[in-house]
Specification:
- With 240 residues, this protein is an alpha/beta fold.
- It has two domains: 174 residues, Vaccinia Virus protein VP39 (Rossmann fold), CATH 3.40.50.150; 53 residues, N-terminal domain of TfIIb.
- It is 28% helix and 32% strand.
- The chain contains seven helices and eleven strands.
- It has a seven-stranded mixed sheet with strand order 3-2-1-4-5-11-10, sandwiched between helices.
- Helix 2 crosses helix 3 and helix 5 packs across helix 7.
- The longest helix is centred in the N-terminal third of the chain and has 17 residues.
Length: 240
């Protein structure tokens, strides 16, 4: 089965504390609120919409969610419109949005030969000077702890098992996740996340027509370090 969909929703949502979401929304609201380019905002990979509704209300600006997973969109929170769409063929006009964001490495679950086309497509729909905010994890942190494992019971009584192994030669963190329901049904899937050192992020953005405006090690701001739990990049669309 696909990693995204029922498996992802049921195994991820229980770990998303409201306080964490509130801090992330506050960070995005501050970033977009001070950015000089005005206009619509897009949540790339909005999922069930934990950021989009509160962010739209905080900014008082139009916000559109886009996701490929039908189930996530059906279960999304109220407060913002959303459409089902492919990141490689965004259903948006050229230079039609002011800002976009993507959280939890959503744009880094594709093979290497698809990454540059993906970022060029995002750049296509951003207005000149528009802002893209990306959230992922520092390459150095993943490389320092290449083996990860979790298992335990979730609030609904189901049992979650996950393991992952990071390969520094490819930058891929290869994982397997399984969720066993109380009735015995098992949902499982393999997945990977692609991590880049910060200079490679800059190269990828530059090749797509963007430049890095900042890099933070978390929603509190400040520069990223090898031990930072987050890597948040603000990228500006070139004016040319």
């Amino acid at each position: 089965m696909s990693f995204f969909g029922e498996l992802y929703l049921r195994s991820t949502v229980p770990f998303l504390a409201r306080e964490v979401t509130e801090r992330e929304v506050a960070y995005l609201a501050e970033s977009f609120g001070r950015w000089p380019v005005r206009g619509p905002i897009v949540d790339l990979g909005c999922g069930h919409g934990r950021h989009a509704g509160p962010l739209s209300r905080a900014l008082g600006r139009p916000l559109l969610g886009i996701d490929l997973d039908r189930l996530s969109l059906l279960r999304r929170e109220d407060g913002f419109p959303a459409i089902r769409g492919d990141f490689f063929q965004l259903p948006l006009r050229d230079r039609s949005i002011a800002c976009a964001y993507s959280w939890y490495s959503t744009l880094f679950v594709f093979d290497d030969d698809r990454q540059l086309p993906l970022f060029r497509e995002v750049a296509r729909v951003l207005a000149p000077g528009g802002l893209l905010v990306l959230h992922t994890v520092p390459w150095e942190r993943v490389a320092a702890e290449p083996e990860a494992h979790y298992e335990g019971k979730l609030p609904d009584g189901s049992y979650l098992f996950e393991r992952s192994t990071f390969d520094p030669s490819t930058g891929r963190d290869n994982g397997f996740r399984a969720l066993r329901e109380t009735g015995g049904r098992v949902l499982s899937a393999h997945f990977f996340i692609r991590y880049y050192p910060l200079p490679q992020h800059c190269e990828l953005l530059r090749a797509a027509g963007m430049r890095m405006a900042w890099a933070h090690g978390g929603v509190a701001g400040g520069p990223p370090t090898p031990s930072s739990t987050d890597l948040i990049i603000g990228a500006e669309r070139e004016h040319a």
